[in-house]
Amino acid sequence: MIRLLDVLLAFFGLIFAFPIFIIIYVIGLFDTGSPVFKQKRVGRNKKPFILVKFRTMSVETKSVASHLASRTSITKLGHFLRKTKLDELPQLWNVLKGEMSLVGPRPGLFNQDELTAARDVHGVYSVRPGITGEGQVNDIDMSTPELLAEIDAKMIRELNLRNYFKFILQTVTGKGTGDRIKG
To answer: Does 139 score more than 50 pLDDT?
Structure first.
């Protein structure tokens, strides 16, 4: 049932958000010259996939977890996109392709060894990663890998339709601040 909801919501989300995509893309061309960001992430069963987002950091920024990146690398448009969570919109394509779910553990990077190990212990890789989830709406990010893995496992155990829609609604209404960025 959740996969069907993922497909329907992602499909209609892509259609209705298309004008927003175009606007962000054009503004992003002026902001960084490269408005779309692609990065290899850890997916279900630790299978790699390419995550798609709107770029929020300068093109020269190293490929590291957000909490390890410098605040100065975030562009003016990037600050707005992160605050409104619009940088996540292109991931609807990942959801439609079956690589992600709307709700699930945020996909980590392959160089986040502590997070990968903690998630392995808690069985987090048995599900599709998500655009949002319990960790995101409660400001628990990848800078605390063991805590995040525990919260992810709890969310997976307790995920039902009510919680699915609760996390989506909390994200859309602005709960959670996103990944920390170092000063």
So the answer is: yes
